[in-house]
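Standup notes
- DV: blocked on the single-chain target, sequence here:
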Amino acid sequence: KELQFVKASKLSLQPCAVIGRSPTGLTDSIALNCGVEAGAQVGRAVVSKGFLVGKITYAAQGFSTAQLITSANFFVDARISQSGRLAIVRGSFNSGLVLEQVAQDEPLEPGMLVVTAGVSEKVPKNLLIGEVGEILSEANELFKKASLVSPIDFTALEFVFLVK
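- DV (later): unblocked, structure below
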């Protein structure tokens, strides 16, 4: 699957092996064998199978660390692909993803795709993040909120790509 993604992608990608996981045992971060010499920079996107899985938080010679998208401290600008409306995706206690800041008048249904908005130059526009799962907000709230479903098993990542 990774090779098919690389062949189809127009992005400049650097393959990296996962060489370590968060010492807490939670799926919070991963260590990669790609360092600054391979193009690792703080804030750069990390993808697997075409889906955003995290961002580089530390880069040194020979290795880097990436915070996973499921981390409670993670957030990224996003866009609902069907409408183009902006939103924010946040990690949810190391277990999932939440789509936030969606206007109440914005149509939001399970199965809609969510992609990166491209506000940051280090996280390119239109990287897949996931699809809308369950709507978590009520009609009387200021913004809509929904769970996002990613096909990535974050506990089993072995290879990823650094987006250069």
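- Follow-up: The radius of gyration is 16 Å.
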